[in-house]
Design goal:
Rossmann fold; 7-stranded parallel beta sheet; about 575 residues; 19 helices; 4 domains; 20 strands; single chain; alpha/beta; globular
Amino acid sequence: MLVRSGNDEDRDRARQLIDMEHRRASKISWDDKHWSEKPLELMKERDWRIFKEDFNISSKESGLPKILLDMVEIVGYKDPSPIQRAAIPIGLQNRDIIGIAETGSGKTASFVLPMLVYISTLPPLGEHNKNDGPYAIILAPTRELALQIETETKKFSDPMDFVCVSIVGGHRIEEQAFNLRDGVHIVIATPGRLLDCLERRVLVLSQCAYIVLDEADRMIDLGFEDTVNRLLDALPVHNQKPDSDDAENPLLMSRIIAGKERFRQTVMFSATMPPPVEKLAKKYLRRPAVVTIGNAGQAVDTVLQLVEMMSTEDKKRRRLEELLNSNDYPPPVIIFTNQRRSCDALAKSLARIGVCPAAHASLTAQWNAVTLHGGKSQEQREAALAQLRSGSADCLVATDLAGRGIDVADVSLVVNFSMAKTIEAITFLTPDDTDIMYDLRVAISKSSISRVPDWLRMHEAAQRKQDKQPAKKTADELLFQIPAGRWYYDAPAAFLQDIVGRRVRVRLNSGIDYRGVLSCLDGCMNVALEECGEYVEGELKNEYGDAFIRGNNVLYIAADGACGG
């Protein structure tokens, strides 16, 4: 690769700034035009308001009950987003829905409002049915997204006296069972913890009739395909819609079954539609209406995406220092990195790289960074997000655990300090990232305000999609056996020596303290906690249930007997 001089880099950055101004100017020219002359993707809030006035369209015609319309006004929702305009009327017709929408498009209200209308037609919870489980479940891939959905849902469910609870890892299952004791209308959960509750008989789904799969592609990416299938297979079958044209008939699908129940309604939202998600939809949804807003997987059009090639880690850190010291990006700022240790080290170094633009009172104040990754407890993770949202922290340094779904207002800058394995934003790229360059070039070229750098556009690896040869898996092998019921703090030296540098899958039984074993593996591999629904590196903390260390070469450590898959 050619090494450019400082003057070449300055010219490239100047050209980028000029291109950005040209693109902004072209967008301003569109702003002066009438809505009827604009493409759909360039219509702004003002255009939609004039459009509704021209055609005398009112939210009062939405079919939502008055109590929800009043709450919409109180919450401050003025105009529905495109996905809300499309999905809410369809949801009120009791149709199954597949929603493909860009991140940050307002999907939560798209399924929450129709869900609450649906629940309002069902019998009230009482002594006769409170132990039959919730009327609705919402599945989310991560704890943070589940808690965020719970917050948004309660804004509308509380005035209707509907009980809404979250079930996620990081909290004692006894505490969550206590919250379910008097019956709940809505459960918002991560797949692993919900399955754990079902298997422990903490919860049943005997009367569940409304299912939402949010960020379905993300759940598949995290390895929850089998878990989601098991959860959906646990739903009652007597209220399932027929797989025929009747499933598209709103009148038939709205009728009461057996005097008290209604046909099940399933809603799936996803940013992309990979084959596993399509398979899931084909198996569990009945004649769904497909709503696509924008380009699948594309970031919202207000995000300018830049990609910069950095040949070394030192250059990446110096460039980050330039960005943060430029005073162009006030807090909050979010930085993503791929490894937990990099996350912690980067957060510590932020205090030494300059003055935070928000520190008006003291010119000596530095960037106050908090971290979010799988090694943090649930309380620490919630506290980090709360500090960022409240302004007491300026910067969040996170692994891809927080890559999608968290909602933080007024973020001025997002930096992918390490190249993500999927593209969705200033990104620091290195020569080792050739396998993702083609997808990156295609993603940036779809943006109306971002520009593909010349070096990326002409790079050989960006001309065609790279063929990925799957690594061959070794035969299953029992490396090390832990007797059940033992407290195990020290792993044998021979065992540790055997697995150094290798990828190992570990099955752990509940009721055994494996902190010593997992701490020995810290930094070597990733641990995915099925019950929590996220990746945790190095340490199991105080979680219970099955945990797996995933990798290309699948090897096993059995907890009490023979190895199993």
